[in-house]
Amino acid sequence: MKRISIIGGGISGLAVLHYLKQQMGDTVEITLFEREAEVGGTIRTIKKGDCLFECGPNAFLDYQPSTLQLIEELGLTDQLIEAAPGSRRRYIQIKGKLLPIPMDPVSFIRTPLISSDDKWSLLIGLFKKNISKDRSIYAYFSQRFSPEIAESLVDPFISGIYAGNIKRLHMGAAFPKFNRKGSKRKTHMCSFKGGMGDIILELGKRYKEHIQTNAVIPDLTSLRPGWDITVIATPAYAAARIVNNLNPALAGVLEQIPYAPVAVVGLLFKKTAFKKIPDGFGYLIPSQENKEVLGVLLESNVYPNRAQADEVMIRVILGGAHHPAIRNSSSEQVLSSAIKEIDAVYGLGSKPVETFVKLWPQAIPQYEMDYPLWHKEIALQCLKTPGVFLCANYLDGISFNDCINNAQVTAIGIKNQSSGNI
User: Fold this and answer.
1) CATH label of the domain that carries residue 386
2) Domain membership of residue 382 as a residue range
3) Fewest C-beta in 10 Å: which of 12, 248, 342, 394?
4) Which of 17-26, 85-94, 411-420 has the highest mean pLDDT?
5) How many domains does the chain divide into?
6) Do 290 and 348 share a domain, yes or no?
7) Same domain, 286 and 356
8) In three state form, how does the secondary structure of the chain look?
9) pLDDT tens for residues 144-158?
């Protein structure tokens, strides 16, 4: 019987565990090692009374078949909820003012977000073809549309996804499927009734006999030779430490992948606390505004069950690649900055009734300009390290959907290798 170890209990490691058990059953012995007291990684939902606060990802788009299949296999389909229709309205903050993102031709013509010349550039750019994606996100959209569109419209959305710098992120690596025709089915932003933590709780409960928490694996040499195959499902910087004794060249590449720091602040207010009631989904802030706050999500507008009917739950995201000093900030400093932001935009007559703060010093891997070279070298070095598989969001996509899809691919690769099909 082969023995398989999985290091890392985030969604990637847990999904690999699920797929291996599904595909190989009792023909293998599998143990997942997680250094924290609980599994889940950045996916954590804190519940206080009727209030739900997401420490990390708060939703996913329902376009990925593997994600929906996993949810069905876990018996969680009836726990899915879609974003409320009323939260469709979104804003971008320019000079402290919230400007609605155009959602139809009339509002596009009238929007002050971009100039008339750039509106024309946007229309023309939609028909441009064969623009190389082997360049930065900023260079790509500047050529396709204009520098102003890149900075005013593209930048805040990239900050919302990567918390990164569009002049340093590689377009082809960060968005490999951009311009590719996909399904015409309308997608929805979804979560679970009990928050994103529901899927972690279910995976942890289902496979608890295969999971060891508070388990620190300093390196692979301390784990071997007792295991035939090891899946390293940790962030790149942790993976580098784990493989260093076995393959220093692989560790060297992994160490080069940078991570952007992010602080997530949850604020629960009574609706009567606001001079201006927050509406819509929330807003994003372009990097050129030079603000520590990346964006604000009106969580209870998107998912009403996140707070009571007379309350408003808000998530404020701060830091990112443009403000790395956030990783050295205290919880009190971050909380103060978040409250000041909400007060400046909506006006506050009273303090929040509940607050949550989560600091992620190394939150999101950055697919920067050298990423294609890093990715190629990682694949090469993994071939030189038999029995070792890497599966985490620094490889082939950072989203929840990407992690699950990549975990399925990894499990298939392990099964094929174990059965001698490759």
Assistant:
1) 3.50.50.60
2) 2-41+195-257+367-419
3) 248
4) 17-26
5) 3
6) yes
7) yes
8) CEEEEEECCCHHHHHHHHHHHHHHHHHEEEEEECCCCCCCCCCCEEEECCEEEECCCCCEECCCHHHHHHHHHCCCHHHEEECCHHHCCEEEEECCEEEECCCCHHHHHHCCCCCHHHHHHHHHHCCCCCCCCCCEHHHHHHHHCCHHHHHHHHHHHHHHHHCCCCCCEEHHHHCCCCCCCCCCCCCCEEEECCCCHHHHHHHHHHCHHHEECCCCCCCHHHHCCCCCEEEECCCHHHHHHHHCCCCHHHHHHHCCCCEEEEEEEEEEEEHHHECCCCCCCEEECCHHHCCCEEEEECHHHHCHHHCCCCEEEEEEEEECCCCHHHHHCCHHHHHHHHHHHHHHHHCECCCCCEEEEEEEEEEEECCECCHHHHHHHHHHHHHCCCCEEECCCCCCCCCHHHHHHHHHHHHHHHHHHHHCCC
9) 999 999 999 999 999
